[in-house]
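Hi L.,

As promised, protein-tyrosine-phosphatase:
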Amino acid sequence: MTCVTGCDDDCDDAGAGGSRAYIACQGPLPHTLDDFWRMVVQCDVQVIVMASNETEGGKHKCECYWACEAGERRQFGEVGVSFVKSRQVCPDFLVRTLKITFPGDGGEAETRIVCQFHYSLWPDHGVPDSVKPLLAMVRLVRECQASETLPLLVHCSAGCGRTGTICAIDHVWTLLRTGVSWGVDTP
């Protein structure tokens, strides 16, 4: 498998102290689909959080990069993506379970399960109607991937507003949960 330029360095050096906690990116576009899935494989991503819809405000924002139905398999470069199951957790988000297949280091095919959390009711340039479903999703994301060393891939349409908010919520929640002092001075 051909490396994504700089991915290994980016995955190893992202964040403070070399943490591999997050990969924040824009939603995949038609010409970046293969690179997106190659990054998922190379950086050992097990959970993807999608905080956008394919179309928002009448504009195409993100390409469909997953298989949608039982038995469906889509190919993105050397990475095959198959639908396993989907569960609507609440009206705000659902969880898709996908199986990816890709060439391993020894040439043998490898498979991995990837969970995609799709938060669909957060408008671009807006706020969710309620914070409870968002917090519930972040909690479920961490139940699905408790590892702090594997990267959590988060994207919206542009990869900044909603993406950054989810990363910040998850990071602060982790600090609170672990009791780590995070150096905020208050008067």
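The first strand starts at residue 22 and ends at 26.

Thanks again for sending the construct details.

K.
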